[in-house]
Write a structure and sequence with these properties.
The protein is an all-alpha fold. The chain contains twelve helices and no strands.
Amino acid sequence: MNNKTLKGSIAIGISAIMWGFDGVVLTPRLYNLDVGFVVFMLHFIPFILMNVFMHRQYKLMNEFNTKDFVVILSIALTGGALGTLSIVKALFLINFQQLSIVVLLQKLQPIFAILLAAILLKEKITRRFILWGLLAIIAGYTLTFEFNWPTFSSDKNTILASMYALIAALCFGSSTVFSKMVLEKYNFKTVTFFRYGLTTLIMFLYLIITQKFMQFPQVTINNWLFFVIIGLTTGSGAIFLYYFGLRHVNAMVSVIVELIFPVSAIIFDYMFNDARLSLVQWLSAAIMIVAIVKINYKRKKLIKKKIGEA
């Protein structure tokens, strides 16, 4: 392994650990606040920081045509607002019980990304994808409910959290496809900057409409601490670290290193919440991860090519 590949792998590995830590340890600690307010702050703080170092990106707005604006707005709406709202809601609903399951379920996003790419970009769906996709979905079910048939009366929060996690996977997968469309013209720094900016604007309007701005007096010192930590590390910091790493490794190395994400989520859930998976859930998690790796490989090659061009 040469130095660039090693540096890239380390960068991706660190970002994966940061995302695992965020989903299990950091974001759930904001449960005392409104979900929409949390999502607004998680984008507002990083965007303010980005403006210090990336304010020149505003000049590129003169180059945006209608399609560019619509696509970037779609990225902000799906990957930013709706996706983050859904995953944060799922994490809050589970009440510190098996948070790693919610984190793992949202990793099904490549399935939705490929399905949407087939619709919007006319990419071909292969039998291989159908096989591994079905296997991943079945494994996701047994990971959540094992071999039991859930009932809404006794498993209400688990069912709702699973649904929100899948909605998040759909939104993040959609964002990947939209990003792929716009990365043909602009680099990832520009897309990330405007994604955070537009998401902040969308969530600002959401808070006005829902009258949730009165949450500020309820924000504790610990809440502010978590907002700042997330904003500077697992938020925008992890994204830039991930894209830096993606420039220097091939697709297969990226997919393998990203396995640190689900593994770290399970470890952190055990360390901080004493959550343990059953044998069935361990096997389901392993099967789902393998299936996602198989699905993810081709998609990562395409994304890496776009990042390299940027």
